UniProtKB/TrEMBL annotation:
Superkingdom field: Bacteria
Keyword Nucleotidyltransferase: no
InterPro entries: Aminotrans_3, PyrdxlP-dep_Trfase, PyrdxlP-dep_Trfase_major, PyrdxlP-dep_Trfase_small
Cofactor(s) the protein requires to work: pyridoxal 5'-phosphate
Family to which the UniProt record says this protein belongs: Belongs to the class-III pyridoxal-phosphate-dependent aminotransferase family.
Keyword Transit peptide: no
UniProt organism field: Cryobacterium algoricola
Any Pfam family the entry gives: Aminotran_3
An example molecular function term from Gene Ontology annotations: transaminase activity
Keywords: Aminotransferase, Pyridoxal phosphate, Transferase
Protein name: Aminotransferase class III-fold pyridoxal phosphate-dependent enzyme
Length: 416
Protein backbone atom coordinates (compact mmCIF):
# COMPACT_ATOMS: atom_id res chain seq x y z
CA UNK A 1 0.00 0.00 0.00
CA UNK A 2 0.96 3.62 -0.64
CA UNK A 3 2.55 5.79 2.02
CA UNK A 4 2.43 9.57 2.33
CA UNK A 5 5.43 10.97 4.23
CA UNK A 6 5.82 14.02 1.95
CA UNK A 7 2.07 14.76 1.94
CA UNK A 8 2.03 14.66 5.72
CA UNK A 9 5.15 16.83 6.01
CA UNK A 10 3.51 19.39 3.67
CA UNK A 11 0.35 19.31 5.76
CA UNK A 12 2.37 19.98 8.92
CA UNK A 13 3.80 23.10 7.19
CA UNK A 14 0.34 24.10 5.98
CA UNK A 15 -1.26 23.99 9.43
CA UNK A 16 1.18 26.70 10.58
CA UNK A 17 0.25 29.23 7.88
CA UNK A 18 -3.19 28.20 6.51
CA UNK A 19 -6.34 27.93 8.65
CA UNK A 20 -6.92 24.20 9.26
CA UNK A 21 -4.07 23.41 6.86
CA UNK A 22 -6.48 22.54 4.06
CA UNK A 23 -9.93 24.05 4.53
CA UNK A 24 -13.30 23.00 3.17
CA UNK A 25 -14.20 19.63 1.75
CA UNK A 26 -10.70 18.96 0.39
CA UNK A 27 -9.36 19.01 3.95
CA UNK A 28 -8.57 15.80 5.81
CA UNK A 29 -11.31 16.20 8.39
CA UNK A 30 -14.01 17.16 5.89
CA UNK A 31 -13.27 15.67 2.52
CA UNK A 32 -12.04 12.17 2.93
CA UNK A 33 -13.74 11.35 6.22
CA UNK A 34 -11.07 8.73 6.77
CA UNK A 35 -7.82 8.87 8.69
CA UNK A 36 -5.19 11.18 7.27
CA UNK A 37 -2.71 8.30 7.40
CA UNK A 38 -4.68 6.46 4.68
CA UNK A 39 -5.09 9.39 2.34
CA UNK A 40 -2.82 11.64 0.24
CA UNK A 41 -3.15 15.33 1.06
CA UNK A 42 -1.27 17.13 -1.70
CA UNK A 43 -1.00 16.38 -5.41
CA UNK A 44 1.88 17.30 -7.67
CA UNK A 45 0.70 16.51 -11.20
CA UNK A 46 -2.44 15.51 -13.09
CA UNK A 47 -3.09 14.18 -16.57
CA UNK A 48 -6.16 12.61 -18.16
CA UNK A 49 -8.06 10.60 -15.60
CA UNK A 50 -5.08 10.37 -13.19
CA UNK A 51 -3.18 12.45 -10.67
CA UNK A 52 0.05 11.87 -8.74
CA UNK A 53 0.55 12.93 -5.12
CA UNK A 54 3.71 14.61 -3.81
CA UNK A 55 5.02 11.18 -2.76
CA UNK A 56 4.83 10.02 -6.39
CA UNK A 57 1.84 7.68 -5.91
CA UNK A 58 -0.47 7.40 -8.93
CA UNK A 59 -4.31 7.43 -8.79
CA UNK A 60 -7.20 6.81 -11.12
CA UNK A 61 -9.31 9.72 -9.93
CA UNK A 62 -13.06 9.41 -9.38
CA UNK A 63 -13.41 12.77 -7.61
CA UNK A 64 -12.34 14.85 -10.64
CA UNK A 65 -11.42 17.86 -8.49
CA UNK A 66 -14.94 17.52 -7.00
CA UNK A 67 -16.38 17.97 -10.48
CA UNK A 68 -14.41 20.37 -12.70
CA UNK A 69 -12.35 17.66 -14.40
CA UNK A 70 -14.92 16.64 -16.99
CA UNK A 71 -12.78 15.97 -20.09
CA UNK A 72 -9.60 14.77 -18.39
CA UNK A 73 -6.89 16.80 -16.66
CA UNK A 74 -4.92 18.97 -19.04
CA UNK A 75 -7.15 18.32 -22.04
CA UNK A 76 -5.19 19.40 -25.15
CA UNK A 77 -8.07 21.19 -26.90
CA UNK A 78 -9.06 23.17 -23.82
CA UNK A 79 -5.44 24.06 -23.04
CA UNK A 80 -4.81 25.17 -26.62
CA UNK A 81 -7.88 27.45 -26.60
CA UNK A 82 -6.88 28.89 -23.22
CA UNK A 83 -3.26 29.46 -24.32
CA UNK A 84 -4.33 31.21 -27.54
CA UNK A 85 -6.62 33.52 -25.56
CA UNK A 86 -3.93 34.12 -22.88
CA UNK A 87 -1.56 35.37 -25.56
CA UNK A 88 -4.17 37.95 -26.61
CA UNK A 89 -5.53 39.08 -23.23
CA UNK A 90 -7.17 37.89 -20.04
CA UNK A 91 -8.24 40.44 -17.38
CA UNK A 92 -8.56 43.87 -19.01
CA UNK A 93 -10.44 47.09 -18.23
CA UNK A 94 -13.26 46.13 -20.59
CA UNK A 95 -14.44 42.61 -21.48
CA UNK A 96 -13.41 40.61 -24.52
CA UNK A 97 -16.08 39.61 -27.06
CA UNK A 98 -15.30 36.00 -26.17
CA UNK A 99 -17.67 36.58 -23.23
CA UNK A 100 -20.46 37.14 -25.76
CA UNK A 101 -19.38 34.07 -27.74
CA UNK A 102 -19.72 31.91 -24.62
CA UNK A 103 -23.10 33.42 -23.70
CA UNK A 104 -24.34 32.68 -27.24
CA UNK A 105 -23.06 29.11 -27.01
CA UNK A 106 -24.82 28.58 -23.66
CA UNK A 107 -28.09 30.02 -25.00
CA UNK A 108 -27.79 27.61 -27.94
CA UNK A 109 -26.86 24.62 -25.75
CA UNK A 110 -28.92 24.97 -22.57
CA UNK A 111 -32.65 24.52 -23.08
CA UNK A 112 -33.79 26.94 -20.35
CA UNK A 113 -31.19 29.64 -21.13
CA UNK A 114 -32.22 32.89 -22.82
CA UNK A 115 -29.19 34.64 -21.28
CA UNK A 116 -26.03 33.89 -19.29
CA UNK A 117 -24.39 35.86 -16.46
CA UNK A 118 -20.80 34.82 -15.60
CA UNK A 119 -19.02 34.63 -12.26
CA UNK A 120 -16.33 32.40 -10.75
CA UNK A 121 -17.73 29.84 -8.28
CA UNK A 122 -20.93 27.86 -8.02
CA UNK A 123 -21.90 29.79 -4.89
CA UNK A 124 -21.71 33.09 -6.82
CA UNK A 125 -24.45 31.81 -9.12
CA UNK A 126 -26.72 30.32 -6.43
CA UNK A 127 -26.52 33.61 -4.49
CA UNK A 128 -27.33 35.59 -7.65
CA UNK A 129 -30.24 33.23 -8.36
CA UNK A 130 -31.72 33.84 -4.89
CA UNK A 131 -31.26 37.61 -5.24
CA UNK A 132 -32.86 37.52 -8.70
CA UNK A 133 -35.89 35.60 -7.42
CA UNK A 134 -36.30 38.13 -4.59
CA UNK A 135 -35.79 41.14 -6.89
CA UNK A 136 -38.31 39.78 -9.41
CA UNK A 137 -41.03 38.84 -6.94
CA UNK A 138 -40.36 41.35 -4.13
CA UNK A 139 -40.86 38.42 -1.75
CA UNK A 140 -38.45 37.10 0.89
CA UNK A 141 -38.86 33.38 1.50
CA UNK A 142 -36.97 30.61 -0.28
CA UNK A 143 -37.89 26.91 -0.31
CA UNK A 144 -34.99 24.44 0.03
CA UNK A 145 -34.96 20.67 -0.33
CA UNK A 146 -33.66 18.61 2.60
CA UNK A 147 -30.04 17.51 2.16
CA UNK A 148 -29.22 20.58 0.04
CA UNK A 149 -25.83 22.13 -0.58
CA UNK A 150 -25.75 25.40 -2.49
CA UNK A 151 -22.37 26.78 -1.41
CA UNK A 152 -21.16 28.63 1.66
CA UNK A 153 -22.86 32.05 1.57
CA UNK A 154 -24.58 32.70 4.93
CA UNK A 155 -28.09 32.31 3.41
CA UNK A 156 -27.17 28.77 2.33
CA UNK A 157 -25.73 27.63 5.67
CA UNK A 158 -27.52 26.37 8.79
CA UNK A 159 -28.45 28.34 11.87
CA UNK A 160 -26.13 26.41 14.17
CA UNK A 161 -23.06 26.94 11.96
CA UNK A 162 -20.47 29.37 13.34
CA UNK A 163 -20.75 32.90 11.96
CA UNK A 164 -24.31 32.47 10.66
CA UNK A 165 -26.97 34.84 12.02
CA UNK A 166 -30.60 34.03 12.64
CA UNK A 167 -31.42 36.82 10.16
CA UNK A 168 -29.34 35.12 7.44
CA UNK A 169 -31.55 32.05 7.39
CA UNK A 170 -34.82 33.48 8.78
CA UNK A 171 -36.55 33.19 5.40
CA UNK A 172 -35.51 29.62 4.63
CA UNK A 173 -38.16 26.89 4.45
CA UNK A 174 -37.18 23.24 3.95
CA UNK A 175 -39.23 20.40 2.46
CA UNK A 176 -38.30 16.73 1.86
CA UNK A 177 -37.24 15.68 -1.66
CA UNK A 178 -39.85 13.98 -3.84
CA UNK A 179 -42.69 15.17 -1.56
CA UNK A 180 -45.19 17.16 -3.64
CA UNK A 181 -47.74 17.39 -0.84
CA UNK A 182 -45.16 19.01 1.47
CA UNK A 183 -44.41 21.56 -1.24
CA UNK A 184 -48.11 22.24 -1.81
CA UNK A 185 -48.69 22.75 1.94
CA UNK A 186 -45.66 25.05 2.25
CA UNK A 187 -46.73 27.16 -0.72
CA UNK A 188 -50.26 27.50 0.68
CA UNK A 189 -49.12 28.26 4.21
CA UNK A 190 -46.79 31.05 3.01
CA UNK A 191 -48.90 32.20 0.06
CA UNK A 192 -47.61 35.41 -1.50
CA UNK A 193 -44.36 35.33 0.50
CA UNK A 194 -42.22 32.79 -1.36
CA UNK A 195 -39.78 34.18 -3.94
CA UNK A 196 -38.16 30.97 -5.13
CA UNK A 197 -37.54 27.28 -4.78
CA UNK A 198 -33.91 26.15 -5.13
CA UNK A 199 -33.07 22.50 -5.66
CA UNK A 200 -30.46 20.19 -7.12
CA UNK A 201 -31.86 18.21 -10.07
CA UNK A 202 -31.78 15.09 -7.92
CA UNK A 203 -30.84 14.53 -4.29
CA UNK A 204 -27.04 14.13 -4.30
CA UNK A 205 -26.39 14.90 -0.65
CA UNK A 206 -23.63 13.50 1.55
CA UNK A 207 -23.88 10.58 4.00
CA UNK A 208 -27.12 9.30 2.39
CA UNK A 209 -27.99 7.22 -0.63
CA UNK A 210 -28.66 9.65 -3.46
CA UNK A 211 -32.25 9.78 -4.75
CA UNK A 212 -33.56 10.30 -8.27
CA UNK A 213 -36.76 12.29 -8.92
CA UNK A 214 -39.96 10.24 -8.77
CA UNK A 215 -41.99 9.95 -11.97
CA UNK A 216 -43.84 13.23 -12.50
CA UNK A 217 -42.17 14.97 -9.53
CA UNK A 218 -40.48 17.80 -11.41
CA UNK A 219 -43.49 18.38 -13.64
CA UNK A 220 -45.65 18.78 -10.52
CA UNK A 221 -43.08 21.14 -8.94
CA UNK A 222 -43.09 23.21 -12.12
CA UNK A 223 -46.91 23.45 -12.10
CA UNK A 224 -47.03 24.46 -8.41
CA UNK A 225 -44.32 27.11 -8.87
CA UNK A 226 -46.29 28.56 -11.79
CA UNK A 227 -49.54 28.58 -9.80
CA UNK A 228 -47.87 30.44 -6.91
CA UNK A 229 -45.62 32.78 -8.93
CA UNK A 230 -42.50 31.16 -7.44
CA UNK A 231 -39.18 31.25 -9.36
CA UNK A 232 -37.91 27.69 -9.94
CA UNK A 233 -34.12 27.57 -9.54
CA UNK A 234 -32.12 24.46 -10.48
CA UNK A 235 -28.70 24.22 -8.87
CA UNK A 236 -26.87 22.29 -11.59
CA UNK A 237 -23.44 23.23 -10.22
CA UNK A 238 -22.55 19.59 -9.58
CA UNK A 239 -24.58 17.59 -12.12
CA UNK A 240 -24.57 20.14 -14.96
CA UNK A 241 -23.16 18.87 -18.31
CA UNK A 242 -22.67 15.36 -16.91
CA UNK A 243 -26.27 14.20 -17.53
CA UNK A 244 -27.32 16.37 -20.46
CA UNK A 245 -25.61 19.29 -22.19
CA UNK A 246 -29.02 20.98 -22.44
CA UNK A 247 -29.22 21.06 -18.61
CA UNK A 248 -30.35 18.57 -15.98
CA UNK A 249 -33.85 20.13 -16.01
CA UNK A 250 -34.06 19.18 -19.69
CA UNK A 251 -32.78 15.69 -18.79
CA UNK A 252 -35.67 15.23 -16.35
CA UNK A 253 -38.25 16.75 -18.71
CA UNK A 254 -39.01 20.16 -17.23
CA UNK A 255 -37.83 23.72 -17.57
CA UNK A 256 -36.17 25.79 -14.83
CA UNK A 257 -36.52 29.58 -14.61
CA UNK A 258 -32.91 29.93 -13.44
CA UNK A 259 -30.13 27.32 -13.71
CA UNK A 260 -26.70 27.49 -12.03
CA UNK A 261 -23.59 25.99 -13.68
CA UNK A 262 -20.00 25.80 -12.57
CA UNK A 263 -17.98 22.64 -12.12
CA UNK A 264 -17.98 21.03 -15.58
CA UNK A 265 -18.21 24.29 -17.52
CA UNK A 266 -14.54 24.86 -18.41
CA UNK A 267 -12.64 21.68 -17.43
CA UNK A 268 -11.05 23.33 -14.41
CA UNK A 269 -10.67 26.91 -15.62
CA UNK A 270 -12.42 29.34 -13.29
CA UNK A 271 -15.84 30.32 -14.55
CA UNK A 272 -19.43 29.78 -13.50
CA UNK A 273 -22.70 30.85 -15.11
CA UNK A 274 -26.23 31.66 -14.09
CA UNK A 275 -28.57 31.09 -17.01
CA UNK A 276 -32.25 31.98 -17.12
CA UNK A 277 -35.46 32.85 -18.88
CA UNK A 278 -36.21 36.14 -20.59
CA UNK A 279 -38.78 37.25 -18.01
CA UNK A 280 -36.01 37.43 -15.36
CA UNK A 281 -33.49 39.37 -17.46
CA UNK A 282 -34.56 42.78 -16.13
CA UNK A 283 -34.51 41.54 -12.53
CA UNK A 284 -31.00 40.09 -12.82
CA UNK A 285 -29.81 43.24 -14.61
CA UNK A 286 -31.04 45.37 -11.71
CA UNK A 287 -28.81 43.61 -9.14
CA UNK A 288 -25.43 44.97 -7.99
CA UNK A 289 -23.20 41.99 -8.64
CA UNK A 290 -19.68 41.56 -10.02
CA UNK A 291 -16.11 40.58 -9.08
CA UNK A 292 -12.49 41.37 -9.93
CA UNK A 293 -11.98 38.35 -12.19
CA UNK A 294 -15.51 37.69 -13.41
CA UNK A 295 -14.86 38.85 -16.98
CA UNK A 296 -11.45 37.22 -17.42
CA UNK A 297 -11.25 35.95 -20.98
CA UNK A 298 -9.09 32.81 -20.65
CA UNK A 299 -11.74 30.78 -18.79
CA UNK A 300 -14.34 31.84 -21.39
CA UNK A 301 -12.12 30.39 -24.13
CA UNK A 302 -11.67 27.22 -22.07
CA UNK A 303 -15.43 26.94 -21.55
CA UNK A 304 -16.16 27.24 -25.28
CA UNK A 305 -13.59 24.51 -26.03
CA UNK A 306 -14.99 22.32 -23.23
CA UNK A 307 -18.63 22.55 -24.28
CA UNK A 308 -17.70 22.04 -27.94
CA UNK A 309 -15.76 18.87 -27.14
CA UNK A 310 -18.37 17.52 -24.70
CA UNK A 311 -20.89 17.92 -27.50
CA UNK A 312 -18.71 16.29 -30.18
CA UNK A 313 -17.96 13.18 -28.14
CA UNK A 314 -21.45 12.97 -26.59
CA UNK A 315 -19.82 12.91 -23.16
CA UNK A 316 -23.01 12.37 -21.11
CA UNK A 317 -23.67 9.05 -22.93
CA UNK A 318 -20.06 8.01 -22.25
CA UNK A 319 -20.39 8.92 -18.54
CA UNK A 320 -23.59 6.89 -18.19
CA UNK A 321 -22.03 3.87 -19.93
CA UNK A 322 -18.73 3.88 -17.98
CA UNK A 323 -20.45 4.76 -14.69
CA UNK A 324 -22.77 1.79 -15.12
CA UNK A 325 -19.90 -0.56 -16.08
CA UNK A 326 -17.96 0.57 -13.01
CA UNK A 327 -20.75 0.42 -10.43
CA UNK A 328 -21.97 -2.94 -11.72
CA UNK A 329 -18.42 -4.30 -11.46
CA UNK A 330 -17.91 -2.90 -7.96
CA UNK A 331 -21.20 -4.41 -6.74
CA UNK A 332 -20.13 -7.83 -8.10
CA UNK A 333 -16.66 -7.46 -6.53
CA UNK A 334 -18.30 -6.75 -3.17
CA UNK A 335 -20.65 -9.71 -3.53
CA UNK A 336 -17.68 -12.03 -4.23
CA UNK A 337 -16.45 -11.20 -0.71
CA UNK A 338 -19.97 -11.46 0.77
CA UNK A 339 -20.43 -7.69 1.11
CA UNK A 340 -23.39 -5.69 -0.19
CA UNK A 341 -22.35 -2.51 -1.98
CA UNK A 342 -25.17 -0.08 -2.81
CA UNK A 343 -24.70 2.38 -5.67
CA UNK A 344 -27.21 5.24 -5.97
CA UNK A 345 -27.79 8.45 -7.92
CA UNK A 346 -26.92 8.81 -11.59
CA UNK A 347 -24.06 6.56 -12.87
CA UNK A 348 -22.15 9.68 -14.03
CA UNK A 349 -22.07 10.82 -10.37
CA UNK A 350 -22.47 7.53 -8.51
CA UNK A 351 -22.70 7.40 -4.69
CA UNK A 352 -21.45 4.29 -2.86
CA UNK A 353 -22.32 2.72 0.51
CA UNK A 354 -21.45 -0.63 2.04
CA UNK A 355 -24.81 -1.77 3.33
CA UNK A 356 -23.50 -4.14 5.97
CA UNK A 357 -22.40 -1.47 8.41
CA UNK A 358 -24.48 1.34 9.91
CA UNK A 359 -21.42 2.78 11.65
CA UNK A 360 -19.94 3.54 8.18
CA UNK A 361 -16.51 2.45 9.40
CA UNK A 362 -16.39 -0.63 7.17
CA UNK A 363 -17.07 1.53 4.13
CA UNK A 364 -14.31 3.92 5.17
CA UNK A 365 -11.93 0.99 5.60
CA UNK A 366 -12.67 -0.26 2.09
CA UNK A 367 -12.26 3.27 0.65
CA UNK A 368 -8.90 3.61 2.42
CA UNK A 369 -7.67 0.29 0.98
CA UNK A 370 -8.72 1.40 -2.53
CA UNK A 371 -6.98 4.77 -2.18
CA UNK A 372 -3.79 3.16 -0.90
CA UNK A 373 -3.75 1.02 -4.04
CA UNK A 374 -4.33 3.79 -6.56
CA UNK A 375 -8.10 4.19 -6.87
CA UNK A 376 -9.04 7.63 -5.61
CA UNK A 377 -12.57 7.46 -4.27
CA UNK A 378 -13.97 9.00 -1.11
CA UNK A 379 -16.53 8.05 1.45
CA UNK A 380 -19.99 9.61 1.90
CA UNK A 381 -19.84 11.92 -1.15
CA UNK A 382 -20.80 11.22 -4.75
CA UNK A 383 -18.09 10.51 -7.31
CA UNK A 384 -17.53 11.87 -10.82
CA UNK A 385 -16.66 10.34 -14.20
CA UNK A 386 -14.55 12.20 -16.76
CA UNK A 387 -14.23 11.67 -20.51
CA UNK A 388 -10.57 10.53 -20.36
CA UNK A 389 -11.60 7.44 -18.39
CA UNK A 390 -11.39 4.23 -20.46
CA UNK A 391 -12.88 0.75 -20.09
CA UNK A 392 -9.36 -0.48 -19.25
CA UNK A 393 -9.19 2.05 -16.38
CA UNK A 394 -12.60 0.90 -15.16
CA UNK A 395 -11.56 -2.77 -15.25
CA UNK A 396 -8.31 -1.94 -13.43
CA UNK A 397 -10.38 -0.08 -10.82
CA UNK A 398 -12.62 -3.10 -10.30
CA UNK A 399 -9.52 -5.33 -9.82
CA UNK A 400 -8.08 -2.99 -7.19
CA UNK A 401 -11.47 -2.66 -5.48
CA UNK A 402 -11.69 -6.49 -5.38
CA UNK A 403 -8.31 -6.69 -3.64
CA UNK A 404 -9.51 -4.05 -1.17
CA UNK A 405 -12.71 -6.03 -0.44
CA UNK A 406 -10.69 -9.18 0.13
CA UNK A 407 -8.35 -7.37 2.56
CA UNK A 408 -11.32 -5.97 4.50
CA UNK A 409 -12.96 -9.43 4.53
CA UNK A 410 -9.77 -11.03 5.95
CA UNK A 411 -9.71 -8.41 8.68
CA UNK A 412 -13.41 -9.01 9.52
CA UNK A 413 -14.03 -12.68 8.70
CA UNK A 414 -17.29 -12.88 10.66
CA UNK A 415 -18.85 -9.64 9.43
CA UNK A 416 -22.18 -10.12 7.70
N1 LIG B 1 -24.19 23.76 -5.39
C1 LIG B 1 -23.83 22.48 -5.50
C2 LIG B 1 -24.88 21.46 -5.81
C3 LIG B 1 -22.51 22.10 -5.32
O1 LIG B 1 -22.15 20.81 -5.43
C4 LIG B 1 -21.54 23.10 -5.02
C5 LIG B 1 -20.09 22.77 -4.83
N2 LIG B 1 -19.83 21.54 -4.26
C6 LIG B 1 -21.97 24.43 -4.92
C7 LIG B 1 -23.29 24.72 -5.12
C8 LIG B 1 -21.02 25.53 -4.58
O2 LIG B 1 -20.11 25.73 -5.59
P1 LIG B 1 -18.71 26.43 -5.28
O3 LIG B 1 -18.00 25.58 -4.29
O4 LIG B 1 -18.02 26.47 -6.61
O5 LIG B 1 -19.03 27.80 -4.77
Amino acid sequence: PYEYPLSRAAFARATKVIPSGIYGHQGPSEGCYIPQASFPLFSSRAEGTRFWDVDGNEYIDYMCGYGPNVLGYGDDEVHAAARTQAELEDVVSIPSTIMVDLAELLVETVASADWAFFAKNGGDTTTLAIMTARAATRRKKIVFVKGYYHGVAPWSQKLDYPGVLEEDVANNLTIPFNDIEALRRTLEQHAGQIAGLIAQPYMHGNFVDNALPAEGYWQAVRRLCDEHGVVLIVDDVRAGFRLDLAGSDHYYGFSADLICFCKALANGYNVSALCGRDFLKDAVSSITYTGSYWMSAVPFAAAIATITKLHRIDAPAQFARLGTRLTTGLITAARNEAFTLVSSGEPALFYLRLADDDSLMLHQEWVAECVQRGVFITSHHNHFINAALTETDVDMTIDIASQAFSIVRKRHPLWS
